[in-house]
Design a protein that fits this description.
about 110 residues, mainly alpha
Length: about 110
């Protein structure tokens, strides 16, 4: 149920903020991918924004028995805020400038 709530929350937040998002995985092992623009930049900016809101979060979520409905509510509220900022920055062409670090790299590219 927690995983399904997170997947639904991602979809709803993406719709509210006009972001195209692919949500996949089985509910307890979920992930999302930004479908427009540079996913690596958007993912890194999402991580940055979530850290600012007190969550060590990426584009994946592995639900555990320790997660409560309140945890999920707070997480999805922070996600909605982050998605809004990502959408605004993308519309202004400022994603990379607002990124504090480097874009996310896929696979073994991050090791070299």
């Amino acid at each position: 149920a927690i995983g399904r709530a997170v997947q639904a929350g991602w979809r709803e937040a993406a719709i509210r903020n006009n972001l195209k998002l692919h949500v996949g995985g089985i509910p307890p092992l979920s992930h999302f991918v930004f479908e427009e623009g540079d996913h690596g930049v958007q993912k890194a900016f999402f991580v940055q924004l979530m850290l600012e809101r007190g969550f060590l979060a990426s584009n994946s979520f592995y639900s555990m028995l320790a997660h409560t409905e309140e945890d999920v509510r707070r997480y999805l509220q922070a996600t909605d805020e982050a998605f809004a900022i990502i959408a605004q920055a993308a519309a202004a062409g400022e994603l990379e400038q607002r990124l504090a670090g480097k874009p996310s790299a896929a696979g073994f590219k991050r090791l070299i």
